[in-house]
Design a protein that fits this description.
Strand order of the largest sheet: 2-1-6-5-4-3
Distance between the termini: 41 Å
CATH class: Alpha Beta
Number of helices: 3
Low-confidence stretches: none
CATH topology: Nuclear Transport Factor 2, Chain: A
Helix content: 25-40%
Length: 129
């Protein structure tokens, strides 16, 4: 287990809460996979994080259930809560799977309940685009 990879996991969750996933946290060739979109590029993933922040009246908050780090892999089990700009409450359950290279995220997969995302987030995302 790598203590530094636990720090990367914490920095990732803090960045999502802040609504900005900086290049300094990601490798140049970083890619992602989302439950509702499949593979996405680094820039598209960063845009999705910024869009999520715009949809939230209050910053999204994560309650971490567990973090497991071994070699270059980190798994975060977490729950989220936020108030959306339309006043509705948003809550989802996540499993984030990360690959870390040289202290930066090279790959991330977000596994979450797609029904909640489709019901709560998709209409807001469409209105903000």
């Amino acid at each position: 287990m790598s203590p530094s990879n636990y720090a990367v996991a914490g920095a990732y969750l803090s960045a999502v809460t802040a609504g900005d996933l900086p290049d300094s946290l990601l490798t140049d060739d970083m890619t992602a996979w989302l439950t509702t979109q499949g593979p996405v590029s680094k820039s598209d993933y960063q845009s999705a994080i910024r869009l999520l922040a715009r949809m939230c009246q209050t910053p999204i908050r994560f309650t971490v259930d567990a973090i497991t780090a071994e070699d270059d892999r980190v798994v975060i089990e977490a729950q989220s809560q936020a108030t959306l700009i339309n006043g509705e409450q948003y809550a989802n359950t996540y499993v984030f799977s990360l690959r870390v290279r040289d202290g930066r995220i090279a790959w991330i997969a977000e596994h979450y309940n797609p029904l909640v995302a489709q019901e709560k987030l998709f209409p807001l995302a469409a209105s903000l685009r």
